């Protein structure tokens, strides 16, 4: 970290950026009780991120001097009330910004007036000075669980559906591949015989799916640290145990490890909670997927080994901890690109850094991969400017890193927010198909550099 | 009477300085008339959606200063969208002949809860030092945020101390989002700070011809603009002057000597009013008194005013004659092709007026407009530069003018009702609803592109193309997702606009 605590070229946004987690729930409506610019800042960071009711559709109290001086609860009341008249939605989440929190508005009592009348309205504190969006995502999810989902617990008794799991993984929009990644997790887990609440994106059934969260037998967390408070809360509330896979499973090795981990965990539940998966069918699925994957690598190996005009031999990733770990493992073992200095820019809390370090160290028995935890990506770039390795380099990062890659003569893969130089819709990077897509994307840029 | 006061750190927001409003519904002529009579009152809305932010508008004027760096003094989210300006700087650099565009440096002081309790002054001071060590920039700009404003940090004091210590200008720009519903106040905030801290005082020399002292000048005309194409130099060369583009792609040096230009022009009064006004009232650089050159009559008035100001009226006449000959026949053709077409406009104030003028010139019937705010006054006290009045005078009145700061719900309601043949927009996010309703929609981001005689032709041709290629919007309309209730779409569009 820099001495002053400054951040150059931020790769995430503040707590109110978690409004995108609401945008990602089908037919959910965020309502901002914040300064006028918070919504457009978030939209500008992610770009093409309006969804159902984000961007300029999102109602906002637009704090002015008057609300700063006299408080903004009346204004909030009127905006919520009229939101119901103007916009169709199944769930509404009030997110408060710095202004409302510094002024100290009693948002809970305004919201209470509407929930008493049966409105599905939730509120959550997302002052930008308190957290970044990685942390706030869990706060938003937990607020919805506490204030909304909990009301349906008699319809969905805790752990009443033995094959059902809740998945907490990609942060919507912060992970540029979130839609595709969540779709792939759902597909893979369903192939094992599980039923999946994926909760965000087009594969989710929206509020009805959220209502059934308590019924799940267990939870799956695919993340090194963000999202952890959600599975902890669910364990406390509904007694659901959780299985954690601490990085993105990209490619065949890690997807197998992930799916076998889920199977073993499911298998460990017994008695009334026994999941009862068909292990033979599940293993056959993994074998088949893996076979298809290695058929491609087999085809590709000649190119990787023989292409005489130059391919990258080493990689630097500037991303969140989940991606750095997942990509380092995948690129080393399944593509043959050696991870050199890695940069984790998600502000990983100190108590989780040691675990992330040990996972990165376990990537290889024979090499050490240096890693730097620092949200100040400008400083990371200064480090990169001064490192030299033999051969052609690859940088995987955000739009900010494109100019650095050019400066260093490296190949460049845009895979992190903000990503103004790339369009991503429903591409996935996780799973076996995701691994193949990463390979396609890397060598598409490499080959595009010729002629 | 000028409202410009460079002795205070923060600029007065537009609501106070120019009586700016963000709520109105009526005809263009009523808006013009009420602006002149001072009878225009603000109307609030009891339902609102997200607005823009002064801090990002302030930022766009300084992130693109070539040898500067920008520090956002606030939580990390308050600079989240500024990467877009790094993209813009890089992509548009060739338009300004920048051979080696350099990486943009955007910092956040990353204010956290501690600082909201104990103050962020120390963190800001430490950040400035660290930024200086890292980049050694020619100038450091600090933009403020809601959080730093409410906790009351002494940003001006810290900036001044740092400037003394480091020996480079450190410029505090006060642009907290909550201060104004008119996010273009952010432009004014940056200009105010630049005028206070960077622009050189005018120099005077003895003029032996008249025996009096006169302002030292260079053969330059300041152009207050964004980052659009360089359409000015081909005109200016004929007058023997060059464009000094302010403030994107400027350097510390070119900002400093803007006080030595012969004159200033603006691409848009919304954008440039304050800097034009400050250069005139505080540094003696006259601002051109004509609405920007959109449409034939406005272009001719503008060129003549420029000729008069630069004391070369004959050059203006030559240009007008040549360009008339080159473009008028094509404009007449376009007009007959576009006859009977209706269009709705959504844009910021100044550029919205420009688009309405272009529609008038092309014979397209403007059936309404949603303009983000309205400034009844400008900062150099020149009613003759009023673009909307010029539009009404040149081409007639426009019905259904709504002053509406990007309130999408109102726009959707109006578009659904008016159902124009074309939507002409200027700001991101606004064309979506045209397309969703199956209305061919055109957004030209480059505000210089539509200027002059040639600009009319280019707009006409693009409009024909958009009207012709409507398959995409026709198909999208069949599948569009609409979050708005049927109830709302059947209401009168200004239902939530309160009567004062």
Quick tags:
heterodimer, A: 451 residues, alpha/beta, Rossmann fold, six-stranded parallel sheet, four-stranded parallel sheet, 17 helices, globular, B: 500 residues, 3 domains, six-stranded mixed sheet, 21 helices, 44% helix
Return the average pLDDT of chain A rounded to an integer: 97
The total count of strands of chain A amounts to 14
What is the CATH topology descriptor of the largest domain in chain B?
Rossmann fold
Largest sheet of chain B: 6 strands, mixed
Strand order of the largest sheet of chain B: 1-13-12-11-14-15
Structural class label of chain B: alpha/beta
Low-confidence residue ranges of chain A: none
Would you identify the CATH architecture of the largest domain in chain A? Answer: 3-Layer(aba) Sandwich
Largest sheet of chain A: 6 strands, parallel
**Count of the separate structural domains of chain B:** 3
Head-to-tail CA distance between termini of chain A: 42 Å
Largest two-chain interface: A-B, 76 and 70 residues
Provide the helix percentage of chain A.
40-55%
Structure description:
The complex is a heterodimer of chains A (451) and B (500). Chain A is an alpha/beta fold and 451 residues long. Chain A has three domains: 133 residues, 3-Layer(aba) Sandwich (Rossmann fold), CATH 3.40.50; 128 residues, 3-Layer(aba) Sandwich (Rossmann fold); 149 residues, Nitrogenase molybdenum iron protein domain (Rossmann fold, 3-Layer(aba) Sandwich). In chain A, the strands form three sheets. In chain A, strands 9, 10, 11, 12, 13 and 14 form a six-stranded parallel sheet that branches. Chain A has a four-stranded parallel sheet with strand order 6-5-7-8, sandwiched between helices. A three-stranded parallel sheet of chain A has the order 2-3-4, sandwiched between helices. In chain A, α7 runs parallel beside α10. Chain A is globular, with a radius of gyration of 23 Å. The two termini of chain A are 42 Å apart. The model of chain A has no long low-confidence stretch (mean pLDDT 97). Chain B has 21 helices and 15 strands. Chain B has three domains: 127 residues, 3-Layer(aba) Sandwich (Rossmann fold); 106 residues, 3-Layer(aba) Sandwich (Rossmann fold); 163 residues, Nitrogenase molybdenum iron protein domain (Rossmann fold, 3-Layer(aba) Sandwich), CATH 3.40.50.1980. Chain B is an alpha/beta fold. In chain B, α13 packs antiparallel against α14. The model of chain B has no long low-confidence stretch (mean pLDDT 95). In chain B, the strands form four sheets. Chain B has a six-stranded mixed sheet with strand order 1-13-12-11-14-15, with helices on both faces. A four-stranded parallel sheet of chain B has the order 3-2-4-5, with helices on both faces. Classes of the chains: A alpha/beta (451), B alpha/beta (500). Chains A and B meet through β1, α2, α3, α4 and α5 of A and α3, α4, β3, α5 and α6 of B. β1 of chain A pairs antiparallel with β3 of chain B, so a sheet runs across the interface.
């Amino acid at each position: 970290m820099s001495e002053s605590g400054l951040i150059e070229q931020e790769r995430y946004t503040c707590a109110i950026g978690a409004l995108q987690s609401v945008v990602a729930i089908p037919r959910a409506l965020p309502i901002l009780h914040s300064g006028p610019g918070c919504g457009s800042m978030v939209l500008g960071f992610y770009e093409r991120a309006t969804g159902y009711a984000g961007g300029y559709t999102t109602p906002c109290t637009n704090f002015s001097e008057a609300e700063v001086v006299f408080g903004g609860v009346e204004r909030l009341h009127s905006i919520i009330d009229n939101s119901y008249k103007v916009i169709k939605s199944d769930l509404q989440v009030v997110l408060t910004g710095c202004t409302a929190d510094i002024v100290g508005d009693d948002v809970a009592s305004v919201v209470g007036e509407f929930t008493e009348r049966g409105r599905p309205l939730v509120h959550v504190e997302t002052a930008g000075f308190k957290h970044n969006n990685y942390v706030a995502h869990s706060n938003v999810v937990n607020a919805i669980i506490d204030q909304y989902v909990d009301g349906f617990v008699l319809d969905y008794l805790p752990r009443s559906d033995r094959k059902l799991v809740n998945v907490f993984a990609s942060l919507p929009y912060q992970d540029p591949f979130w839609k595709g990644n969540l779709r792939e997790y759902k597909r893979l887990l369903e192939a094992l015989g599980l039923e999946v609440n994926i909760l965000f994106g087009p594969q989710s059934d929206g509020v009805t799916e959220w209502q059934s969260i308590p019924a799940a037998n267990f939870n799956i967390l695919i993340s090194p640290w963000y999202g952890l408070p959600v599975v902890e809360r669910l364990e406390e509330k509904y007694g659901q145990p959780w299985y954690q896979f601490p990085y993105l499973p990209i490619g065949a090795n890690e997807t197998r490890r992930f799916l076998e981990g889920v199977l073993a965990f499911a298998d460990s539940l017994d008695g009334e909670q026994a999941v009862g998966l068909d292990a033979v069918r599940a293993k056959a699925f993994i074998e088949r997927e893996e076979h298809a994957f290695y058929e491609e690598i087999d085809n590709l190996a000649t190119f990787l080994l023989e292409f005489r005009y130059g391919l990258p031999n080493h990689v630097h990733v500037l991303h969140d901890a989940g991606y750095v770990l997942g990509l380092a493992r995948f690129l080393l073992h399944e593509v043959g690109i050696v991870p050199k200095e890695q940069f984790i820019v998600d502000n990983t809390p100190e108590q989780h850094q040691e675990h992330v370090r040990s996972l990165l160290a376990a990537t290889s028995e024979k090499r050490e991969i240096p890693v730097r935890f620092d949200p100040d990506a400008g400083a990371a770039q200064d480090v990169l400017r001064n490192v030299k390795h033999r051969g052609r380099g690859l940088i995987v990062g955000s739009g900010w890193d494109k100019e650095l890659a050019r400066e260093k003569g490296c190949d460049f893969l845009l895979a992190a927010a903000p990503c103004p130089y790339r369009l991503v819709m429903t591409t996935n990077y996780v799973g076996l198909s995701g691994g193949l897509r990463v390979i396609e994307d890397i060598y598409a840029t490499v080959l595009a550099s010729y002629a | 009477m000028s409202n410009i006061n460079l002795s205070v750190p923060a600029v007065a927001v537009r609501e106070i300085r120019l009586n700016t409003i963000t709520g109105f519904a009526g005809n263009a002529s009523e808006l013009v008339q009420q602006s002149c009579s001072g009878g225009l009152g603000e109307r609030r809305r009891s339902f609102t959606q997200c607005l823009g932010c002064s801090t990002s508008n302030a930022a766009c004027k300084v992130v693109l200063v070539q040898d500067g760096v920008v520090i956002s003094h606030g939580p990390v989210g308050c600079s989240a969208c500024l990467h877009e300006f790094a993209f813009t700087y890089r992509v548009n650099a060739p338009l300004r002949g920048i051979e080696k565009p350099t990486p943009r440096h955007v910092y956040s002081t990353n204010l956290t809860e501690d600082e909201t309790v104990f103050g962020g002054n120390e963190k800001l001071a430490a950040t400035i030092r660290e930024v200086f060590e890292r980049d050694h920039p020619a100038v450091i700009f600090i933009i403020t945020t809601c959080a730093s404003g409410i906790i009351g940090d002494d940003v001006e004091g810290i900036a001044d101390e740092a400037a003394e210590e480091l020996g480079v200008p450190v410029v505090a720009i006060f642009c907290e989002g909550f201060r104004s519903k008119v996010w273009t106040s952010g432009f004014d905030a940056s200009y105010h700070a630049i005028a206070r801290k960077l622009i050189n005082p005018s120099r005077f020399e003895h003029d032996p011809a008249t025996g009096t002292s006169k302002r030292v000048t260079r053969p330059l005309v300041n152009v207050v603009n964004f980052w659009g194409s360089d359409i000015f130099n081909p005109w200016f060369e004929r007058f023997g002057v060059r464009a000094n583009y302010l403030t994107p792609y400027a350097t510390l040096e070119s900002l400093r000597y803007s006080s030595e230009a012969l004159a200033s022009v603006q691409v848009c009064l919304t954008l440039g009013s304050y800097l034009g006004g400050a250069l005139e009232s505080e540094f003696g650089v006259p601002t051109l008194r004509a609405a920007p050159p959109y449409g034939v009559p406005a272009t001719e008035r503008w060129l003549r005013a420029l000729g008069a100001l630069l004391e070369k009226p004959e050059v203006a006449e030559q240009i007008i004659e040549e360009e008339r000959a080159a473009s008028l026949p094509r404009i007449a053709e376009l007009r007959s092709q576009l006859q009977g077409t209706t269009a709705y406009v959504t844009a910021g104030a100044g550029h919205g007026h420009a688009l309405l003028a272009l529609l008038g010139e092309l014979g397209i019937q403007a059936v309404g407009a949603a303009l983000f705010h309205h400034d009844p006054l400008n900062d150099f006290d020149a009613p003759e530069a009023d673009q909307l009045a010029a539009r009404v005078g040149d081409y007639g009145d426009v019905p259904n003018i709504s002053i509406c700061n990007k309130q999408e719900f109102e726009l959707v309601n109006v578009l659904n009702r008016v159902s124009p043949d074309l939507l002409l927009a200027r700001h991101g996010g606004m064309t979506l609803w045209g397309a969703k309703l199956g209305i061919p929609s055109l957004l030209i981001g480059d505000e210089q592109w539509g200027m002059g005689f040639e600009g009319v032709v280019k707009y006409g041709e693009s409009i024909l193309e958009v009207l012709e290629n409507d398959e995409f919007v026709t198909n999208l309309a069949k599948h569009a997702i609409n979050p708005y209730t049927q109830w709302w779409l059947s209401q009168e569009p200004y239902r939530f606009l309160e009567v004062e």
